[in-house]
Amino acid sequence: MSAPAARRGFPIHWVGVVVEYQILGRLRVVGAERAEVVGAPKVETLLGALVCRVEEVIPAERLAYEIWGARPPRRWMAALHVHVSQLRKVLGRIGGDPDGVKDRLVTRAPGYALLLGEGDAVDAKDFHNLVCQGRSALRRDRLEEASKAFGAALALWRGPAFGDVRVGSMIAEFATWAEETRMECTELKMEVDLRMGRDRELIGPLRNLVTEHPLREAFARQLMIALCRAERPADALKVYRFIERTLDQELGVQPGRTLRELQRRILADDQDIPVGIVA
Fold first, then answer.
1. What is the model's pLDDT at position 34?
2. Count of structural domains, the chain
3. What pLDDT sits at residue 275?
4. Given CA atoms 18, 23, 24, 25 in this order, what sign does their dihedral have?
5. Cα–Cα distance between 227 and 70 in angstroms, integer?
6. Pick from 126, 149, 182: which residue ends a domain?
7. For the sheet containing 20-22, what is the strand order?
């Protein structure tokens, strides 16, 4: 995410009701007393693009492309101005400060910028910070702290990033980053919890992850380790066969070296199977 507004030449000169922009699920704006989704699809896309680049000026032409693609209306600048006005009304209602909303959604050549007031937040920014905290704790071998940070990061998600917002290239790129980081965070959370000996309680969640993401071998490896530690090596080998079959059918390839080595060690009745965290 970008640097705070005050450091980018936009002095923060208002203190209103705290507003949170939530994009880790259905796009919505949450104020002190209400949460609201933006019903109009084009206004919703506009808000999504602005939140992606919060505290940055986005050129009007770039916003128009995000909303209409390669075929904008003939009077696209006027139409964009209407959508900006509609969005300001929404932010004014939620923030409880209709007169000061222009300080949040500002006009700056060559376009517009969404600024954060004191106490305002973006859930994706909080997610990123928590993942960084978890990685830092993991590097220092502070497993309980890392597990809590990764768990708090994942708890911010309410569904697919941006929900059903009409996706332009800017939103699509941001959503791809967010979803990939979510998967990485999930992998790290499971690895940390395995190291902490939470094998049996992880079997159920890991089964769901393997079913939902059979091409991500990390989840299969973690599930196999948890099953072995729960004295269920036969079930661990069934997981391997499921992944082997799925990869062959979907991609025509075999499991990676790490998963093959784990299978070999289970077949050899190796009692010392490492978890293998990479922070």
1. 75
2. 2
3. 63
4. positive
5. 52
6. 182
7. 35-36, 28-30, 20-22, 121-122
Both 30 and 135 in one domain: the answer is yes
Q: Residue type for 240, please?
A: Y
Identify the burial level of 277 via C-beta atoms within 10 angstroms of its C-beta, where 0-12 means exposed, 13-18 middle and 19 or more buried: middle
Are 119 and 256 found together in one domain? no
In the chain (279 residues long), the average pLDDT of successive 10-residue segments reads 39 56 93 80 94 95 93 94 92 69 84 89 95 97 97 96 83 94 97 94 97 96 94 96 96 95 91 60
CATH assignment of the domain containing 88: 1.10.10.10
Query: Measured between alpha carbons, how far is 92 from 86 in angstroms, rounded to an integer?
Result: 10
Q: 244 is in which domain, residue-wise?
A: 197-279
CB 28 within 8 A of CB 35: yes
Give the CATH number for residue 243: 1.25.40.10
Do the Cβ atoms of 60 and 111 come closer than 8 Å? Answer: yes
Say if CB 170 and CB 52 are below 8 A apart.
Answer: yes
DSSP code string of 224-236: HHHHHHTT-HHHH
Q: Are 22 and 30 in contact (CB under 8 A)?
A: yes
**How many angstroms separate the CA atoms of 107 and 64, rounded?**
15
205 and 265 in a single domain? The answer is yes
Contact 84, 108 (CB under 8 A): no
**What pLDDT does 96 receive?**
65
In this prediction the pTM is 0.85
pLDDT confidence of residue 173: 93
Query: Could you tell me if 114 and 8 lie in one domain?
Result: yes
For residue 203, the one-letter residue type is I
